Amino acid sequence: MPRLPTPLTLPAGHARGNGQQNDGQDRDRADHAAGAGEPEPGRRRRSPLRRGETATAWAFITPAVLIILGLSVIPVAWSVLLSFQASDLVTPSRWVGLDNYRALSQDPNFSQAVRNTLLYTVLYVPLSIGIGLALALVLNRRIRLVGLYRTLIFVPFVVSATAQGVLFSFILDPEFGAANSVLNTLGISPQGFLTDPGQALLVLVAISLWSGTGFCVVVCLAALQDVQPSLIEAARLDGAGRWQLLRHVTLPAMAPVSVFLLVWQTINALQVFDLVYVTTKGGPLGSTTVIVYFIWEQAFKNFTAGYGAAAAYVLAVALGLVTVGLRLVRGREQRRSARPVRLEGAGK
Predict the structure, then answer these.
(1) Pairing between strand 85-86 and 94-95?
(2) Exposed site from 65, 92, 227, 302, fewest CB < 10 Å?
């Protein structure tokens, strides 16, 4: 029988040291293999695919960025500088500082334009929202041909202000207009309408109501249909009448929409221009000259562009204050409605 070879043995300490060394080398190899595809943060580089996606994204958004810069940011910055200069847009301008703003505070024509704009806004905004809400309450019921009525009320809103001005200029013509013909048939003396300084601004408000109320009707109607039926049913079970239901359930639920309409209609009223330009040209005797028409007249008719730019920024500040004020009111109402209601006798 052949003799088996004697096995080789190593000392215990040496074997244990070699084993630890081999384990450490294996861990190093595993760590290196795991992190081979991910370099250190300081040496991390973008892949060609990543760079291509970034270039494609910039290629898509660059036209929009250029349009915004060219039509918004740059003109705003340029008009700010223009408001501190005396310029006619033709000859070189001259720096005058705050002289344009001081002149505005002493200009009776600008004061009249401000009064006309405020009067137009005070009349148009609450009337358009109130009439729109009333019509929305009527059209929110199940009545015959309700879809046709909603369409007919909204159609004037999509008609441009220029077309409205031309249409009503013919209708309200003092000599040949259809309005005076109807009044004559009813035995009423002819009216001046757009040619009467005491009536012209009120007539413009009426024209604006004819067209702008449709927008308020649509928005209020959508808000009414969004009121939870369970709230209305619970109020009716508690004995609430129609007026109490409107006051305590419907109107509070429509508060956010009401604030939106108030802001939107106020901004539109303060910026009215095209209807005035088509119908009255600011007359008669300046009775319909509003701020935007005054700005246009100064910049492009009297060629005092710096003066007109100063008036434009007075209007911009006024619009900003109105928006911020209404936002603060809305925030206060939201915080008040978010407070927990303390029931009587809850602590007993």
Answers:
(1) antiparallel
(2) 92
Residue in this structure with the two tokens 């309408």, named with its chain if needed: 193
Handedness of CA 333, 334, 337, 340 (dihedral sign): negative
Q: Judging by beta carbons within 10 Å of its beta carbon (0-12, 13-18, 19+), is residue 140 exposed, middle or buried?
A: middle
CA-closest candidate to residue 252, choices 169, 333, 156, 347: 333
Return the pLDDT at 90. 83
Contact status, residue 261 vs residue 326, Cβ threshold 8 Å: no
Q: Is the pLDDT of residue 165 over 80?
A: yes
pLDDT for res 42? 47
pLDDT at 29: 53
Is the CB of residue 129 less than 8 Å from the CB of residue 218? no
DSSP 8-state assignment for residue 166 = H
According to the model, what pLDDT value does residue 331 have? 75
**Which residues are CB-neighbours of 72 under 8 A, at least 6 positions away?**
none
Percentages (nearest 5) of helix, strand, coil residues in the chain? 70, 0, 25
d(CA 308, CA 317): 14
DSSP for 38-98?
S--GGG----HHHHHHHHHHHHHHHHHHHHHIIIIIHHHHHHHHHTTEE--SSSPPEE-TT
- The residue type found at 40 is E
Q: What percent of the chain lies above the pLDDT cut of 90? A: 32
| Cα–Cα distance list, 312 to 130, 295, 299, 315 (Å) | 30, 6, 10, 5
Residue among 303, 237, 273, 232 at smallest CA distance from 90? 303
Per DSSP, the residues of 174-226 read TTT-HHHHHHHHTTPPP--GGG-TTTHHHHHHHHHHHHHHHHHHHHHHHHHHT
Specify whether the CB–CB gap between 296 and 113 falls below 8 A: no
